[in-house]
Amino acid sequence: MTAVDFDPTDPANFSFWTEERLRYGDLDMLAHVNNNAIGVFLENGRVHLFRASGEDIAGGLSWVVRRLEIDFVREIQFPGTVRTGTRVAALGNTSCTIRQGIFVDGECRVTSTAIGVCFDLVARKSVPIPDVVRARLAGHRPS
């Protein structure tokens, strides 16, 4: 699995977007959006990318996170919305590397790298990424 490198702080580098409205309940004691809410924004971006790539076509398959790195670049404050850019950086046999950026008004606030593993929900083990899903995920890789 060879990763394609790109700058996750530049919104122009993302091909897939989700948007979330910030909630008052997302705040911590310092009035920042807390790390749990940020994890949810990242998860929603990954889940929507996997679903758009045909996860539901491949019956009985899903994705599990094997590794997750999050870099908090700058605080996020309520109220407002966040946009999460999601992109495939690498495709392996059973896994893929996902890079993400969370943006407020076009400015990067969070970056993330996750390794997702294609998972058979019945057999409870990793399995090769189906060809149709692989082809769609490859469409979200940088050139």
Task: Provide an overview of this structure.
The chain is an alpha+beta fold and 143 residues long. Helices cover 18% and strands 38% of the residues. The protein has helices at residues 35-52, 131-138, and strands at 16-21, 61-72, 81-91, 95-104, 107-120, 125-126. Strands 1, 2, 3, 4, 5 and 6 form a six-stranded antiparallel sheet that branches. Strand 3 (81-91) and strand 4 (95-104) form a beta hairpin. The longest helix has 18 residues, at 35-52. It is globular and about 45 Å long. The model has no long low-confidence stretch (mean pLDDT 91).
Primary descriptors:
18% helix; 2 helices; single chain; six-stranded antiparallel β-sheet; alpha+beta; 143 residues
Lay out the secondary structure:
Blueprint: E1 16-21, H1 35-52, E2 61-72, E3 81-91, E4 95-104, E5 107-120, E6 125-126, H2 131-138
Antiparallel strand pairs: 1-3, 2-5, 3-4, 4-5, 5-6
Report the mean per-residue pLDDT as an integer.
91
Q: Categorize the overall geometry.
A: globular
Please provide the count of β strands: 6
- Helix count? 2
Task: Name the beta content range.
Answer: 35-45%
Task: Kindly name the structural category.
Answer: alpha+beta
What is the distance, rounded to the nearest whole angstrom, between the alpha carbons of the first and last residues? 15 Å
- One letter per element, helices H and strands E, the order comes to EHEEEEEH
User: Sheet bearing the most strands, described?
Assistant: 6 strands, antiparallel
Radius of gyration: 15 Å
Percent helix, as a range, is 10-25%
Poorly predicted ranges: none
